[in-house]
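Annex B. Sample input.
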Amino acid sequence: MNFNIRMGIPEMQELWQDLQQKYRSGKIKKKEEQLYKKMGESFKVIVGGSILSESSNP
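Annex B, continued. Sample output.
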């Protein structure tokens, strides 16, 4: 099953896309990279948690 993560407000999606673009191009600053990685890990936990809770239901 596929899940979509919605960013609550447009500025959050813009922030994520900006960080993603900078990371991929190698032009990201240290603090931005830390934020990018923390956000990415959070998304993994959210998606992983949704999958685990769904699979544990009969």
